[in-house]
Amino acid sequence: MCGIVGYAGPAAASPSSRPIDVALQGLSRLEYRGYDSAGIAVLDNGSVLQAKRAGKLQNLRNALGEQPVTTSRVAIGHTRWATHGGPTDENAHPHRGGREGELALVHNGIIENFHALRTELEEEGYTFTSQTDSEVAAHVLARDMEQCGDLTEAMRRTVGRLEGAFTLLAIHRDAPDTVVAARRNSPLVVGLGDGENFLGSDVAAFVDATTQAMEIGQDQVVTVTADTVRVIDADGAEVADPTRYTIEWDATAAQKGGHPSFMAKEIQEQADAVRSTLMGRMQDGLLTLDEMQIDEAVLRTIDKIVVVACGTAANAGAVAKYAIEHWCRIPVEVELAHEFRYRDPVVTEKTLVVAISQSGETMDTLMAVRHAREQGAKVIALCNTRGSTIPRESDAALYLHVGPEIAVASTKAYLGQIASCYLLGLFLAQVRHTFFPDEIAALMADLEELPDKIQEVLDNTEQVAELARSMKDATSVLFLGRHVGYPTAMEGALKLKEIAYIHAEGFAAGELKHGPIALVEEGQPVFVIVPSPHGRHSLHSKVVSNIQEVRARGARTLVIAEEGDDDVLPYADHVIRVPQTRVLFAALLTVIPLQIFACELATAKGLDVDQPRNLAKSVTVE
Ligand code: F6R
């Protein structure tokens, strides 16, 4: 939640547009993190200049006009997802700090002790112009700067005073070539350029300027100028060797490339995404997970797996349960991370916790990871964003390799998460000898056919698109499925709710008769995800019966079924075909028509598919 950018460049011979251009470009790349307001600040002729506007980044661009230039060597910027204080111009960041407004600061996170600090500062005569917790941090930092005269040391002291989660970036009129930053529980990366350096909530902020990045650890303070990057820890000691890495994503991956929306583009990228997740895993007949830093002997002692995740990632986790229990004979629980964290879960040293997160920054999931590790559990993270907090705090990390996901609604990461769960399940089966290596190789061979099958689905989307356009006035849509079709139904409903604002529910089809069938009346659209008739016959026939049950009560049935499955024909108003595959692997195919349905329907309603209302991509507050 909230995107932040920072830039430090060379002294301009004459006024330059570079700092502002970099900040605006970075914000446009991070706008998916929040779009309630946007703002930037620079230092011009010895004083802080800033502009900020409620609403999307375009409002800020309009306010700045054509090609603004500045003598500033530095810039900071912010795009907001509101927590404390509504989405107004006043509450937009940057916030000014100090009695003369000598400092500008942007913040991502929540400062939990802001109320006490605000009272203290007001008693000292500091005045506030917003309702935000962030303005408090601006004044605390300005006060620390006034006392010690060194911006890095001031930031270190400020970090010591703040409770909660934050990334802070600040510039000060007395340090004209410097951006100072710090983080606790919120993301921050440094981009290392040639004669210029960058800061961002994630690498998308600067990936078109540099591929070299540096991680910043918990409670560390980083001071950036055009030519230097210095990191200190909470005690003020120099961090000698901060982790550096090369960014694998190229800049074009973070652009729409001719598609009407990032979501449409990311849906179309799914065959390649899953191909990347699966790439290079079979070596000499064995499934190899190089990143698995948990000892195989430890993996053999595991007696329970708990998957923790939120939203779409939790739906991917629900698929993992069916696969891992079947292949490995280990009980698997799937928990929403926020529910796991604040009850008293039974977790021991023999529990393997699997944390699934596209961003690697979801605060609920991070807190669940910390809690699990405190109980002695081993944690493996399945994440997409390299260098993010969850993989760094886990015992091992398996990366999805699906490339940057920009649209708020998750699509290709969902498929990457499911594919990673299959890899993890098969790896555990190999380590724990519940399958012979040749059985695993056969399953992997089938799994490796999935990218082509995904492509087949993607090449035949017109029927679903047409259906979606014809249903743009629908007010309620139901989704039914059994086995891995159940999480698919949940995911189909989630996509429709979040981007098309249509009431939607996903049910286990077997649950229907226990209550939800009362919702069905004449014309009610019901999607049904049908498992392969070639898998477990009883499962297939049960779902076919469920279609009949809703149809008999007037439902309009939209059936997703395997090619050649003619049993569904008498009861389906529309049949959407997917290629044949194993029952377990079908989760990678059947969700795609549902993603397209939601995307097309929202587009037909004229909605902003990539930036749905009230949402942000990374939920970095609890
Ligand atoms: C829905 C969606 C969210 C995320 C959830 C977890 O389309 O994107 O439900 O799946 O916020 O996010 P990550 O995977 O980043 O932890």
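^ fructose -6-phosphate complex. Residues 412-431 form the longest helix (20 residues). Residues 310-313, 357-359, 362, 365, 409-410, 494, 498, 618-619 surround fructose -6-phosphate (CB under 6 Å).
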